[in-house]
């Protein structure tokens, strides 16, 4: 096929519709290009439960092996399970998944040895150039000796590593509802949770890449409704939802109310700081709540604010030696997990924190959830730069605010802040606002939306 790689290769990964935008022939070229760019002599691959994933993953392995590289296939896995394999085996890795996207999509998340990310500035643009050239001119010549392709089980080692990082042996018995959304959480949760003092109520654990029950995207409140109802019906202590490739986790409390990812970030940060003697750097993106840097400082740590996006978080973690990082999108990054993101490890921290005291989750997280946020609100606009300029003009002359341009435009006052940043791939502006009370947040949110949508 003649591929339009400008639509397929994103800032951090490869993602598109199968077979319309890419297929196994193209996946084979990606395998060859990946080993050329990384200089690897061996790699590890894994895939999610989507119907197209096994074929695409196998084609990628063939392309890599044809270049003389040995391939270890771990088969069905979550994205963080692939990161575990990349870290533990010290090999570059390729994960076949389209995360929370609908069934017709698939993609590749790539990393260097030790789960170091591969993005546009760290090899992905070079991979794209090779695939474009080869799709036009023909596949590259094979190596004199073809590499081997072998299978390896990694789920039990992955689970053991995670459980070595969080002590759950002495927690009180908890009842937890887990919604896997027919994604890879249904594969990993039974092994990771095995033997723990938990009464597990599984929802949608059947691996089904057509997502028959709801989209595997818990960031959309509509996809949490089933979990919320079940938590209340079961009188459970909490609920946990994973996205399609199970690298993100979302939490609801015993009343079925969502717990903000910022509150989870603050909770886990306090635990990681305690584990490191009350010292350490914690990374948070600029969309997370004011609560996060406050809690970090209160627990002896140093907060560092970054742009949105896993490549920025991981780069800053490596640069600063941070012990933990969190994002508003429920990605959680751990130094003890090769700076990679793992929703499962964050979930274990929540279980340990809740089970280590007698109160309900709503009371526990209230100390970490101190402000009122709008959530992310997307607006389609004709001219992103024009609307950002209008916002800057409106607020820039005020003496009671500060402006910064770390990622989009952030305006901060004593009682509220908001950030507006453009989408890189769509004609959207994304607004996040927060204030000390609901009335102020609503007023600020509506004022800014009025300018954006004028």
**CATH class of the largest domain, please?**
Alpha Beta
- What's the main sheet like? 7 strands, mixed
The number of distinct helices, counting runs of at least 4 residues, comes to: 15
Mean pLDDT, nearest integer? Answer: 96
The structure class reads alpha/beta
Tell me what portion of residues adopts beta-strand conformation.
15-25%
| CATH T-level fold name of the largest domain | Alpha-D-Glucose-1,6-Bisphosphate, Chain A, domain 3
CATH H-tier superfamily of the largest domain: Alpha-D-Glucose-1,6-Bisphosphate, subunit A, domain 3
The tally of structural domains comes to 4
Broad shape: globular
Distance between the termini: 43 Å
CATH architecture of the largest domain: 3-Layer(aba) Sandwich
Number of strands: 22
Helix proportion range: 25-40%
Low-confidence stretches: none
Instruction: Give the C-alpha Rg.
Output: 22 Å
Plain-language structure description:
There is one protein chain. The protein has 454 residues and is an alpha/beta fold. The protein has 4 domains: 149 residues, Alpha-D-Glucose-1,6-Bisphosphate, subunit A, domain 3 (Alpha-D-Glucose-1,6-Bisphosphate, Chain A, domain 3, 3-Layer(aba) Sandwich); 99 residues, Alpha-D-Glucose-1,6-Bisphosphate, Chain A, domain 3 (3-Layer(aba) Sandwich), CATH 3.40.120.10; 106 residues, Alpha-D-Glucose-1,6-Bisphosphate, subunit A, domain 3 (Alpha-D-Glucose-1,6-Bisphosphate, Chain A, domain 3), CATH 3.40.120.10; 81 residues, Alpha-D-phosphohexomutase, C-terminal domain (TATA-Binding Protein, 2-Layer Sandwich), CATH 3.30.310. The chain is 37% helix and 22% strand. The protein has 15 helices and 22 strands. Strands 1, 2, 3, 4, 5, 6 and 7 form a 7-stranded mixed β-sheet that branches. Strands 17, 18, 19, 20, 21 and 22 form a 6-stranded antiparallel β-sheet that branches. It has a 5-stranded mixed β-sheet with strand order 9-8-10-11-12, with helices on both faces. Strand 4 and strand 5 form a beta hairpin. The longest helix has 15 residues.
């Amino acid at each position: 096929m003649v591929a339009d790689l400008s639509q397929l290769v994103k800032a951090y990964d490869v993602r598109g519709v199968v077979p319309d935008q890419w297929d196994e022939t193209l996946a084979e070229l990606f395998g060859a290009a990946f080993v050329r760019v990384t200089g690897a002599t061996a790699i590890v691959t894994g895939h999610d439960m989507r119907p197209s994933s096994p074929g695409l993953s196998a084609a990628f392995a063939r392309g890599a092996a044809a270049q003389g590289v040995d391939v270890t296939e771990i088969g069905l896995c979550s994205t963080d399970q692939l990161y575990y394999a990349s870290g533990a085996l010290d090999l570059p890795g390729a994960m076949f998944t389209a995360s929370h996207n609908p069934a017709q999509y698939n993609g590749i998340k790539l990393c260097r040895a030790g789960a170091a990310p591969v993005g546009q500035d760290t090899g992905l643009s070079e991979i794209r150039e090779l695939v474009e050239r080869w799709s036009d001119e023909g596949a590259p010549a094979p190596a004199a000796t073809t590499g081997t392709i072998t299978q390896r089980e990694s789920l039990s080692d992955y689970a053991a590593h995670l459980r070595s990082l969080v002590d759950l042996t002495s927690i009180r018995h908890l009842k937890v509802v887990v919604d896997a959304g027919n994604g890879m959480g249904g594969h990993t949760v039974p092994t990771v949770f095995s033997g723990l003092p938990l009464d597990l109520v599984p929802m949608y654990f059947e691996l089904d890449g057509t997502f028959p029950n709801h989209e595997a995207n818990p960031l959309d409140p509509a996809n949490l409704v089933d979990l919320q109802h079940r938590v209340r019906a079961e009188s459970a202590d909490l609920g946990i939802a994973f996205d399609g490739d199970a690298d993100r986790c979302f939490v609801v409390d015993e009343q079925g109310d969502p717990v903000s990812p910022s509150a989870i970030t603050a909770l886990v940060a306090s635990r990681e700081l305690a584990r490191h003697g009350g010292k350490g750097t914690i990374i948070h993106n600029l969309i997370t709540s004011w609560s996060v840097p406050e809690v970090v400082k209160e627990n002896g740590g140093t907060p560092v604010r970054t742009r949105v996006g896993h490549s920025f978080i991981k780069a800053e973690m490596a640069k600063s030696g941070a012990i933990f990082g969190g994002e508003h999108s429920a990605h959680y990054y751990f130094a003890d997990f090769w700076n990679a993101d793992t929703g499962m490890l964050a979930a274990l921290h929540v279980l340990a924190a809740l089970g280590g005291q007698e109160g309900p989750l709503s009371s526990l997280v209230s100390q970490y959830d101190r402000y009122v946020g709008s959530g992310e609100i997307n607006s389609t606009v004709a001219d992103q730069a024009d609307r950002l300029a209008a916002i800057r003009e409106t607020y820039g002359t005020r003496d009671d605010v500060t402006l910064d341009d770390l990622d989009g435009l952030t305006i901060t006052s004593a009682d509220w802040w908001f950030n507006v940043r453009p989408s890189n791939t769509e004609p959207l502006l994304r607004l996040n606002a927060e204030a000390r009370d609901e009335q102020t947040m609503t007023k600020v949110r509506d004022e800014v939306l009025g300018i954006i949508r004028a």
